[in-house]
Amino acid sequence: MTITFADLTTMRIGGPVGQLHVATSTPHAIELLKSADAAEDPLLVMGGGSNLVVGDVGWHGTVVKMESAEFEIDGDRLTAAAGIEWDQVVRAAVAEGLAGIEALSGIPGSVGGTPVQNVGAYGTLTSDVLESLSVYDRQTGLVERWLPEQCGFGSHRQSVFKHSDRWVVLDVTLRLRRSTQSNPITFPAITDRLGISVGGTAPLAEVREAIIAQRREKRMVLDPDDHDTWSVGSFFINPVLAEVPKRASECPSQPDIKGTKLHAAWLIRHSGFQPGYGVDWGNGTVALSSRHPLAVTNRGGATTADVMKFAAHIRDGVAARFDIRLNPECDLIHCSY
Length: 337
Ligand SMILES: Cc1cc2nc3c(=O)[nH]c(=O)nc-3n(C[C@H](O)[C@H](O)[C@H](O)COP(=O)(O)OP(=O)(O)OC[C@H]3O[C@@H](n4cnc5c(N)ncnc54)[C@H](O)[C@@H]3O)c2cc1C
Prior knowledge:
It is built from 8 helices and 19 strands.
């Protein structure tokens, strides 16, 4: 049976996979990467497929899916192999009384995927807790241990891994804090659920539960029966602009090291695209999530071409209204945008 990216990704779209290899340990991953490169076979590395959109033509070379599973807790340090599901790591940290990543509960994908776009939610970024990570350098064939400064974090959702296939993340070491109490929480949606004031803390397990409940409400927790979750999370990235056009002066914003970060969700809504938009558009197989305006969702039977056409339609609507180009947050392979 032919395996397709529709089988391997959370948006459930994309064409056939050439050769699929599952890396079950870190040494196995290195062996697979080395042999694909030695054979000069085009190589795509993936984890949980939760931030990946591959064209309907698929990928004709080798795909290495990271499922390595080495895991260790040593004092307040947690080291996890790239192939472990990220949320398993959060669950383990919470159960161990290690604070620092409870706000990142419920995010799909693998450990190795988190530094790629410096995954973040509810005030916590991967880079806040990352002590080091190990990478396999496909150019030199060497394994190196890197500090966060080498990862190119900085501007919103960026890293050196994002637009380069040179380095493969093998494992990450997080420096957490021994405590059963969470970090301070500044999001009213979460503090209200916990019945605490903004800036307060709560037991780790309760915070994890509140975050997951909030994410569920926004359809940001995977559910195979709910098309609102057949997505890559936010399809569009919050734009960072050196200068904000006058027309967008009312858009909520935050400072970023590269300028001003605008809320893409606000821009989309104010361009006339409300949550759920799309069911009456085109062939109705793609729509914005009914609960999250940044999530482009597969309503069942969508192709990558359908998704890309819909995303371009939203992009063009926002550009016409605000003179701002929305770019994708997810990785697009063999897709035109
Ligand atoms: C419902 C939903 C909710 C989400 N919520 C959030 C959120 O709150 N915050 C957030 O930041 N993101 C969110 N995301 C996006 C996604 O979960 C993250 O980006 C996740 O870290 C991707 O990991 P992955 O293993 O699935 O990566 P994949 O989708 O498999 O790959 C994504 C990219 O990373 C590369 N990659 C994967 N593994 C490695 C590796 N080991 N070494 C080098 N490169 C690698 C791939 O080549 C590809 O370019 C959400 C997605 C979904 C579907």
